[in-house]
Design goal:
Length: 488
């Protein structure tokens, strides 16, 4: 080697030493068995380990720890056995036990004869990048959770507003609240008719049964007129209706048409102080508080919607004068009962009933008194109402009773009972007693008179006409020659 070549070689070595010593990346040179031979100053700064502490050891055995991914470690081992380059992200630990992430590149080195002589490992600290990635992942996860919650809330809202009845609405509330806030148990209370207490109408979760009723002044939310969360503020007081004071809970008034009609009570069993770290506990509770407020508003709107729908439905099928079911309701339910009677072999009868001499009564005393008579008859019929007897006003002085599970004898007995009760009723106007009210009635029986509603109604009407022809104030079972004689 001449002087010029020596100068070039020395210069290259000088620059190589500069790079190795002043690089910010940690560098380890190992033998073919992966035993450490040399480390640069950046490695010592990164890990806290000097050459004397790592020399002769496989670097991974010193740097890897309890949370290092074992699969990544095996990938490095496999690459080194096969003498191929590998680059991975891996969690290492410093001498003091602090975790840090590195972008690790392990490269096999060969001499001019192709013999494997060394491994060179470079470690670039990427802890900050990993933290940002983890934060972004948490943000993506949190956004995915919020998106899922929004979708569940939208779905819940759709089901709530689709409920046709209060019972259906309670079913949706129970299922939705258990899905939206699975960590909590809950109950829904509604004011009784006197508004002196709130009665339990449904509950969800795994807690023992909630109290069957609570008083309005036992709840801070009802007393203050707004939703109340216990377990999140430095100054707070337990509601009197709560049995376990240590548990966080929410109380949310349910409002329909501007009036407080109930209370939703949500309890977080297991969230007492010490059950979770305060940070985790408060984060979960604040998230669930926001969801609960939205649910409370949606449930309030849904209750108001169901109530309005029921009121409109009730008005559409009720006779405004007597409060009995009207013709529309009768036709719908009578057709259904006829179908059930035919399908299941059940008894069914109709009682067609008419106020005797109503026109004369109306003409003599006036329409106001006529309406009073119809209301009185309606009240007598309403008292007979039940699961199997449905009194209806078809129009004018014409009434009909839909009698499910009634054969001819049972229907006849029911009609006689009503006829007598109406005849014993007394009315007065302007201090004067009015003439006695009497009715005539006719029966139509499923099977005997037909299996089609029109045929049964026609038979009942014919029997009614027969009762009027026989002198009124009586019941006829049917219009044939063997019809029952008038009751006297």
């Amino acid at each position: 080697m001449d002087a010029g070549e020596a100068t070039v070689t020395d210069t290259q070595q000088f620059y190589a030493d500069l790079v190795m010593r002043h690089s910010s990346d940690g560098v380890i040179i190992s033998d073919p068995d992966r035993k450490a031979l040399w480390v640069n100053p950046a490695f010592i700064a990164q890990t806290g380990y000097g050459l004397e502490e790592i020399a002769g050891q496989e670097p991974g055995s010193v740097l890897q720890g309890r949370d290092t991914d074992a699969t990544t470690g095996r990938q490095i081992e496999a690459a080194c056995r096969q003498r191929r380059e590998i680059r991975v992200d891996i969690l290492n630990y410093t001498k003091s036990g602090a975790a840090f992430w590195v972008d690790l590149k392990v490269t096999p080195v060969y001499d001019s004869g192709g013999r494997h002589t060394h491994f060179i490992s470079t470690m670039r600290d990427i802890t900050e990048r990993k933290m940002l990635e983890d934060q972004n992942e948490e943000m993506r996860h949190a956004e995915a959770l919020r998106q899922s919650e929004r979708q569940l809330l939208a779905l819940t809202s759709e089901w709530l507003y689709s409920a046709k009845s209060f019972d259906e609405l309670l079913m949706v509330i129970k299922r939705a609240m258990h899905t939206l806030i699975p960590e909590a148990e809950g109950a829904l209370y509604i004011y009784d008719t006197s508004r002196t207490m709130l009665e339990l109408v449904t509950s969800w979760g795994t807690m023992p049964a909630f109290a069957g009723h609570i008083l309005p002044d036992e709840c801070w939310a009802l007393r203050r007129g707004r939703a109340y969360a216990y377990g999140l503020k430095p100054i707070e007081f337990v509601c009197d209706h709560v049995d376990k004071p240590g548990m966080p809970y929410f109380c949310l008034p349910i409002i329909a048409h501007g009036e407080t009609i109930g209370l939703m009570h949500i309890v977080f069993d297991g969230f007492e102080e010490g059950g979770l770290t305060r940070h985790m506990r408060n984060d979960v509770l604040r998230n669930r508080w926001d969801i609960s407020l939205i649910c409370g508003e949606q449930i309030s709107l849904a209750v108001a919607n169901v109530r309005l729908r029921q009121e409109l439905q009730e008005k559409s099928v009720r006779d405004p004068l007597t409060g009995l079911w009207n013709r529309r309701w009768f036709m719908e339910h009578a057709l259904r009962e006829v179908t059930m009677a035919e399908r299941e072999g059940r008894d069914l009868a109709l009682i067609s009933l008419d106020v005797d001499h109503f026109k004369q009564f109306n003409d003599r005393f006036g329409h106001e008194i006529g309406d009073m008579v119809l209301k009185d008859v309606g009240q007598v019929l309403a008292r007979a109402a039940g699961k199997t007897v449905a009194p209806c006003r078809l129009g004018g002085e014409e009434f009909v009773l839909l009698c499910a599970d009634h054969d001819e004898n049972a229907a006849y007995a029911q009609a006689e009972k009503l006829r007598i009760a109406i005849s014993e009723s007394t009315l007065s106007a302007s201090g004067q007693a009015l003439p006695a009210i009497t009715v005539s009635a006719g029966l139509g029986v499923f099977g005997r008179d037909g299996t089609v509603l029109e045929d049964i109604m026609k038979a009942a009407d014919l029997a009614l006409y027969r009762a009027k022809a026989e002198g009124r104030n009586c019941v006829m079972a049917h219009a044939g020659p063997d019809a029952r004689k008038p009751a006297r």
